[in-house]
Specification:
CATH class of the largest domain: Mainly Beta
CATH architecture of the largest domain: 7 Propeller
Strand order of the largest sheet: 3-2-1-28
CATH superfamily of the largest domain: YVTN repeat-like/Quinoprotein amine dehydrogenase
Largest sheet: 4 strands, antiparallel
Order of helices and strands: HEEEEEEEHEEEEEEEEEEEEEEEEEEEEE
Structural class: mainly beta
Number of helices: 2
Strand content: 35-45%
């Protein structure tokens, strides 16, 4: 009799648990069931009032609102954005403009770096733990090892001031890559520090690949690094730079932005609406069909995972426009989610994604 009562109680408990789980799923109270939800920020040029575009989406890129209008200075476009997580976000732009938020964008604060880089236009930012690296024009690299409270200039090799540092990536506290370009060949420069910026070495790539300008650099760890840029060129290392394998040219268009999903899977946004993806470290690439207005430069890409990603772009000519593309199925379908808004006349340059439920990692 006692065993029958216990069995009845056990079955009732299981039924109650099942019902409770169904209720939680229905009302959306189980965050792990919505792990693909993310927030995103997009930056771009200035609007008719001279205020830079700073857009936010809290619903995985479906809808967008502007942030920072009350604090953004007139006439200063934004060039890059980095969401450390869904609360902490950094943006950089022209004439020394750096801002950050620690509450998801409700309040944006200016960061003053005039003592180390007065009036320098910035193009790229990378953060590892509490160390922030920013690159810009005339070979400028600045960093902060205390979360932005104080800043220093990092001295690059001779002649680096002829280049725009357009890509920077901090792999560890000590290992940082910086890449850039100038208007005349040899147009590309690749720099690396392995002592936190105390010294930098200039990397000469095989096949005279520094003849081409470099736009960006990404890494998953100290061994696996990708450098990409002008006219479909890229280089890859799988052993920390002891050997570099040259790739491309894939086409005559620039590879403007790239995200490494892991050491083998890359997604890239390129000129003239080209979206490409590889799952074998760049040995082969597949092209995906773009969306929205054509004749555009796709300038920024970021991904939450292998299915969810955003791309931002800018018109290649006139009339000017900006657009945002979204996929939730690995790029089988890209949809335009921002190409019909009132603000679409403003070119957009970069995007950054952060999970709504966990800190983003690389």
């Amino acid at each position: 009799m006692r065993s029958e009562v216990w069995l009845m109680f056990k079955n009732l408990a299981i039924e109650v648990l099942v019902v409770l789980l169904l209720v939680l799923v229905t009302v959306g109270c189980l965050p792990f069931l919505h792990q693909n939800d993310y927030s995103a920020w997009v930056v771009g040029e200035t609007d008719a009032d001279g205020i830079a575009m700073l857009l936010f989406s809290g619903d995985s890129g479906a809808t967008w609102v502007r942030q920072g209008r009350d604090v953004l200075p007139e006439g200063k476009p934004l060039s890059d954005v980095l969401a450390v997580n869904s609360r902490e976000v950094w943006v950089v732009g022209s004439e020394g403009l750096i801002m950050n938020t620690n509450d998801g964008g409700d309040i944006w604060t200016h960061v003053d770096v005039s003592e180390v880089a007065d009036g320098v236009s910035f193009y790229t930012i990378s953060i590892v733990d509490n160390i922030i690296w920013i690159g810009g024009e005339v070979g400028t690299v600045i960093f902060s090892d205390d979360g932005g409270a104080t800043w220093e200039t990092s001295s690059l090799p001779e002649d680096s001031n002829n280049y725009i540092i357009q890509g920077i990536f901090a792999v560890t506290h000590d290992i940082v890559y910086a890449v850039g370009n100038k208007s005349v060949p040899p147009a590309g420069i690749v720099l690396r520090t392995e002592d936190g910026g105390e010294t930098w070495e200039r990397i000469e790539l095989p096949n005279e690949y520094n003849y081409h300008g470099w736009i960006g650099v990404k890494a998953t760890d100290e061994n696996h690094v990708v450098i990409f840029g002008g006219q479909g060129h890229y280089v890859v290392t799988a052993n920390g730079g002891r050997q570099w394998v040259t790739g491309g040219p894939l086409f005559p268009h620039d590879i403007n932005s790239l995200v490494m999903l892991d050491k083998s899977h890359y997604w890239a946004a390129c000129d003239f609406d080209k979206i490409i993806i590889t799952d074998d470290s760049g040995i082969s690439w597949r092209e995906q069909e773009s969306a929205g207005p054509s004749n555009s430069f796709l300038l920024g890409i970021d991904a939450l995972d292998k299915r969810n990603a955003l791309i931002v772009g800018s018109s290649a000519g006139f009339p000017q426009f900006g657009k945002i593309l979204r996929t939730s199925n690995g790029g089988t379908i890209w949809e335009g989610v921002y190409d019909n808004s009132d603000d679409c006349g403003v070119p957009l340059s970069h995007v950054s994604i952060a999970s709504n439920y966990s800190k983003k990692g690389f």
